[in-house]
Amino acid sequence: MRLSGFTVAIDGPAASGKGTISKAVARHFGFAHLDTGLLYRAVGAKVLDGQAAQAAAEALVPGDLEDDRLRSPEVAQAASRVAAVPEVRAALVDFQRSFATRAGGAVLDGRDIGTVICPDAQVKLFVTAHADVRARRRFDELLGKGIETTFEEVLADVQARDARDMGRADAPLKPAKDAVQIDTSEMEIAVAVEAAVSLIKAKMAGSA
Ligand SMILES: Nc1ncnc2c1ncn2[C@@H]1O[C@H](COP(=O)(O)OP(=O)(O)O)[C@@H](O)[C@H]1O
Ligand SMILES: Nc1ccn([C@@H]2O[C@H](COP(=O)(O)OP(=O)(O)O)[C@@H](O)[C@H]2O)c(=O)n1
């Protein structure tokens, strides 16, 4: 089985479940996992602190991804704004591509992994769910973290980011032509993870 350079690309809109599936897949196969949304969130947080977006992206260091604040709705909005800036995206490409090719296999989740960052990934998934289902899940998650918000605010955040992410000129959110789509609207986490694991096993067997 050829694991060196085996890359799994998982894309999808906000709170679709791509991070949950990615973490489970990484655990199952012993792959390294990169949540690429954190890169854009870290740049967004720096812009909220007054820095220029491109300079912040170019100076990003791994420690910047540790900040608890990155999961807040304000930072999510800032992330999707900086994510539309081509110079910001360009500054983050090399790090993501070198992560993707590390020995032992890698799973990356984001918006443009299968289309732009890793067009040759062995496995591509596009995870979706209805916007109101995604907003409900994210709302529950934020409540659990003690972040004060309303369902309506979370739904508006998710819809605004989806529109911005799909509408931008550079690396818009869309399924790669060869991506397998999973709609998790009415799917339990364990079932979604099993679908991803089965697909990856089939691809591994095919490329052994
Ligand atoms: N299939 C599912 N059913 C129910 N809840 C889910 C499912 N997938 C993910 N979740 C929950 O929804 C929230 C968002 O999932 P997450 O994986 O973080 O999404 P994303 O990475 O796409 O933003 C989390 O609280 C997660 O536990
Ligand atoms: N590969 C990626 C990952 C995230 N992003 C941007 O970063 C924002 C935050 O991404 P995220 O994956 O952390 O967001 P959630 O899906 O977890 O809500 C998104 O709304 C996108 O604008 C991107 O443009 N490209």
From TrEMBL:
Entry binding sites for ATP: 12-20
Coiled coil: none
Enzyme class: transferase
Known catalytic reactions: CMP + ATP = CDP + ADP; dCMP + ATP = dCDP + ADP
Lineage: superkingdom: Bacteria
Location of the protein in the cell: Cytoplasm
One Gene Ontology molecular-function label: kinase activity
Pfam families given in the database record: Cytidylate_kin (PF02224)
Enzyme Commission number(s) of this protein: 2.7.4.25
Keywords: ATP-binding, Cytoplasm, Kinase, Nucleotide-binding, Transferase
InterPro entries: Cytidylate_kin, Cytidylate_kinase_dom, P-loop_NTPase
UniProt keyword Nucleotide-binding present: yes
The family this protein is said to belong to: Belongs to the cytidylate kinase family. Type 1 subfamily.
Family matches, as HAMAP family: Cytidyl_kinase_type1
Protein name per UniProt: Cytidylate kinase
Source lineage: Bacteria, Pseudomonadati, Pseudomonadota, Alphaproteobacteria, Rhodobacterales
Gene from which the chain derives: cmk
